[in-house]
Design brief:
This protein is α+β, with helices and mostly antiparallel strands. The protein is built from 30 helices and 22 strands. Strands 15-18-19-17-20-16-14-21-13-22 form a ten-stranded mixed sheet. Strands 1, 2, 3, 4, 9, 10, 11 and 12 form an eight-stranded mixed sheet that branches. Strands 5, 6, 7 and 8 form a four-stranded mixed sheet that branches. It is flat, with a radius of gyration of 39 Å.
């Protein structure tokens, strides 16, 4: 039997598997780098979106429900219509049908909350109730509003009695109906179960309203009860709200069953139908803000309102303040969006540089291998494709893992931005090595023995690219100075301006830094020893590819300086605004009477209190013209002058208030408006106690600690009457004053305000706090990537440096000299980068500060600052990152020298080694 010959072809080893098995360490390092970077890049848009959504919801939730609810109302049918038709329009079935029709006209993304929305019938004119048993504070009868709101049983707990109900069919002539009242209304108006109130009728006998139950709201602060707070809380109103001396009367609400609404037609209350649509906060998203504004405008005054009028009444009207709330949030978001974009651009640039450096390190490590493949016939596209596949096998799963971790850690946000961010990181990681290898090996040649600046000169293309970047950066800076960030332009070029300034500085530093080092190498050669001269000579001829680590370092330093200055500016703005609001570190004040005797001594003994300034403030003192009141502050000149100098609020010396005592009147420090009105001549001021004091303005200051308004007079308390000189406020100095101790010492009759509490109140939006957290995280991430870039730069030169030390050790170089050589060689580049980072950070802040306003981030919209909060340099933010770069460089170089000293020269030096 003849066995046929079979040719067996031996399969070649797969490229990717072989490469990964031969170098698992670099593959794992690349996977870790890509996974962390993809996780951070994916987490950034998700965290920002969560903060934006939370900020929008907080903006809607923190305003009163009267402002956030969309209020629709329709008058009762006209009197000339048949009575049964008018009554039918107010019956619950009709109002409920109209409510359902209104809900059908509401366009998304405006989504109503069915549990808090309400509808019903109420009176537009409050009715005076003549029953004598109701309280009459000023002799006026109490007034009530008749409200037939649907859903009372679902939103109230029965405290006493039973819920009201209607017996039979209620009409406009029904003599008696049932009602419930809230517990607060029952307590204030002395209403009990079984009480009967008589509401005057319109052309008929009074409508008797029998109270059958007392209820308590299930959700007192919900829109059902809080849109019209009269439903749960009575009001002690005045006949003239602007006159504090006008007579007062009680005003409450009687809660009728929905079926009793037609009875309101028999009163003078002029009933009307209403529908109150409460927005659902859980459905509010920042990405839908534009569509939400459009839907709201259509419902209030657009096509949706026309549909509502068709379904209800031609005279139906709509009103809401929700559009103003959304506009306020939009202004806040526009103020912070450009600032957060600066952090995103800075950290993203540093991360991209580190990924490119990782690819460059791999390409440099395999330079000989790739050159040999090209010499043996490997095509450039084929070589790049193999390197791409080799990198993709590691980077794609790592990027997917980072994306999954970000999605798991930050739920509740859109997936697309995170996916795009992780995809961008993965693509950069995959193409860094193939592109670097393709550029380095586009020509088949023997690897150059030297890659320093003496053999590799900057090309014309590089010069053109650098000039282009300079032009782009200049355009961004000019645009930002003219336009600023407060206008909410959203121009990404403006947000990239600090990064572009760092990029230009890095390119200039790469071009210029070898020149001073070469100049210093000559004089160093005349010194004893070779370490100084050799280190300067090698630093001056460092690799021409050092532009990437310098770019990473300067960009990170510029971003850190910019971000640190932003955070410092935010803190200073809040501190200053809190100081303006309180006047000192703490303020104890009585608005109705003078302070209790001995309170000053008790406050001085509280822990953390360093000084106390007692002042008397007469808010209703009137100058001689009597046109308007001017607050007069009586102070002790020494203590108050010391307080003004410490706080910086209208500082003056102690002797100012002691000038001119006698016939010329008491010396006074006045605000500009008071000084303009009265000049420097003496004029009398009538105090609240009836006494009079003659004052003469000797100094003008814009602000003063004791009074927050724009008008004030500060005088020596010794020139006032005994009654007017009694202290009404204490200004406490001491940042660590015990707030609990101050409140215990003050008691219930004196209000206590702390500067620290006021400052904490300014962060009232998650968007503001979120921007601070993201900015801090971005700066920290940029610093971490900068350190990693520095480490990659030193690792790239590690084989050549170790070989150099081995050669020098064969010539007699000691180990301490070798350590000094590596440290001194790495130190010039680090020092120049640190100095360049400080200069670029300072330059970027100085150039961009005229267009940056931190008010939107630092203060809530409810606080009106006296002026804008510009960006200014922060010394710690400039110097600490720069010194950290130098320290890390020295540490890494020292560790590298220590590791090189442990390896033998025979192991490092091989025949034919080109290092």
């Amino acid at each position: 039997m003849v066995i046929p010959f079979r040719r067996v072809e031996r399969a070649a080893a797969p490229w990717v598997r072989t490469r990964l098995r031969s170098a698992p360490g670099p593959a794992l390092a690349l996977a870790l780098l890509v996974a962390v970077t993809a996780c951070l890049a994916s987490a950034f848009p998700r965290a920002l979106e969560r903060y934006e959504d939370a900020g929008l919801r907080r903006s809607v939730e923190q305003v009163s429900h009267f402002r956030s609810v969309v209020r629709l109302s329709a008058p009762a049918p006209l009197p000339y219509l048949p009575q049964d038709q008018r009554e039918q329009a107010l019956r619950p079935a009709t109002v409920k049908r109209e409510y359902d029709s209104i809900l059908g006209t509401v366009r998304r993304p405006f989504v109503t909350d069915p549990s808090q929305s309400s509808y019903g019938v109420t009176t537009s004119v409050n009715q005076a109730v003549p029953d004598p048993w109701l309280p009459r504070p000023s002799g006026l009868p109490a007034q009530v509003a008749l409200v037939a709101q649907a859903g009372l049983a679902d939103h109230a707990r029965l405290s006493e009695g039973r819920l009201p109900r209607a017996s039979g069919t209620v009409t406009a002539t029904t003599p008696e109906v049932e009602a419930a009242v809230s517990a607060d209304t029952a307590k204030s108006l002395r209403i009990k179960v079984g009480s009967v109130l008589h509401v005057p009728g319109a052309g008929r006998d009074a409508l008797a309203v029998r109270v059958t139950g007392i209820v308590a709201p299930r959700d007192r602060d919900g829109a059902y009860w809080a849109t019209d707070t009269l439903l749960r809380t009575p009001v002690l109103a005045r006949v003239s709200p602007v006159d504090p001396e006008s007579p007062r009367y009680w005003l409450g609400a009687l809660l009728l069953p929905s079926e009793a609404a037609p009875a309101l037609l028999g009163t003078e209350g002029r009933p009307y139908r209403y529908w109150r649509l409460a927005p659902d906060p859980n459905t509010l998203h920042h990405r839908d803000l534009g569509a939400l504004k459009s839907a709201l405008a259509a419902l209030v005054s657009g096509p949706s309102l026309q549909q509502v009028r068709t379904a209800t009444d031609p005279l139906t009207d709509a009103d809401t303040d929700l559009d103003d709330v959304l506009a306020s949030y939009s202004r806040l978001h526009s103020g912070v969006s450009a600032l957060i974009s600066v952090a995103a651009f800075g950290s993203g640039t540093v991360a991209a540089v580190v990924l490119a450096m990782a690819g460059g390190l791999t390409a440099e490590r395999r330079r000989t291998e790739l050159a040999l493949l090209r010499a043996r016939g490997a095509s450039l596209p084929g070589l790049a494709a193999r390197l791409l596949a080799e990198t993709a096998v590691v980077a794609v799963p790592a990027g997917a893992l980072g994306l999954a971790v970000a999605v798991w850690a930050l739920p509740g946000a859109r997936a697309l931005p995170a996916v795009l961010a992780a995809l961008a990181v993965t693509v950069v990681a995959c193409v860094a090595l193939p592109l670097r290898a393709a550029v380095a090996h586009r020509l088949v040649r023997i690897p150059a023995l030297r890659q320093d600046v003496t053999s590799v000169r900057p090309s014309r293309r590089r010069t053109v690219a650098e000039v282009t970047l300079v032009a782009v950066a200049a355009g961004a800076v000019v645009t930002l100075r003219r336009q600023g960030t407060s206008g909410g332009s959203g121009d990404q070029l403006i947000s990239a301006a600090p990064v572009l300034v760092g990029v230009i500085a890095a390119l200039l530093l790469v071009r210029l830094y070898p020149l001073p080092l070469r100049g210093m190498a000559g004089p160093a050669g005349r010194l004893r020893g070779v370490v100084s001269h050799l280190s300067l000579a090698r630093a001056g001829r460092s690799s021409a590819s050092a532009v990437l680590p310098l770019l990473a370092l300067l960009t990170a330093l510029t971003t850190a300086s910019f971000g640190g200055s932003v955070l410092a500016g935010i803190g200073e703005a809040r501190d200053h605004s809190a100081l303006l609001a309180v006047g000192a570190d703490g303020r104890l004040e009585s608005m109705v009477d003078s302070l209790p005797a001995g309170l000053t001594d008790r406050v001085r003994r509280v822990s953390g209190v360093r000084d106390v300034a007692a002042v008397s403030v007469a808010y209703r003192a009137t100058p001689n013209d009597g046109r308007h009141a001017v607050p007069v502050v009586g102070v002790d000149p020494g203590g108050y002058a010391k307080l003004t100098r410490r706080t910086g609020l209208g500082a003056f010396s102690e002797g100012v208030l002691k000038k001119g005592r006698g016939d010329l009147g008491a010396a006074a420090v006045a605000s500009p408006s008071v000084a303009n009105a009265h000049g420097s001549a003496p004029f009398p001021v009538s105090m609240e106690d009836g006494s009079s004091v003659t004052v003469r303005i000797v100094l003008v200051r814009d602000i003063t600690p004791a009074v927050m308004g724009a008008d004030f007079l500060v005088v020596d308390r010794a020139g006032l009457s005994a009654m007017a000189a009694r202290p009404t406020a204490l200004l406490v100095t001491g940042s660590e004053a015990d707030g609990r101790g101050l409140r215990e010492a003050a008691g219930d009759a004196v209000s206590v305000r702390l500067r620290a509490d006021e400052r904490a109140r300014y962060v009232d939006s998650p968007l503001q706090s979120g921007v601070e957290h993201l900015y801090t995280a971005a700066v920290a991430a940029g610093a971490g990537y900068a350190v990693l870039a520095l480490l990659l730069s030193l690792l790239r030169a590690a084989p050549e440096r170790i070989a150099l030390l081995s050669r020098l050790r064969t010539m007699g170089l000691t180990r301490p000299q070798g350590r000094r050589l590596l440290v001194l060689e790495a130190l010039p580049q680090a020092v120049l980068a640190a100095v360049g980072g400080v200069l670029t950070g300072w330059t970027a802040i100085r150039l961009l500060s005229p267009g940056m306003d931190l008010t939107a981030v630092a203060l809530p919209p409810s606080v009106a600052p006296l002026k804008q909060t510009p960006l200014h340099t922060d010394a710690w933010s400039l110097t600490v990152p720069a010194l950290a770069v130098v320290a890390v460089t020295v540490g890494i170089a020292g560790v590298q020298a220590w590791w090189a000293g442990r390896r033998g020269a025979v192991r490092e030096l091989r025949a034919g080694d080109t290092r």
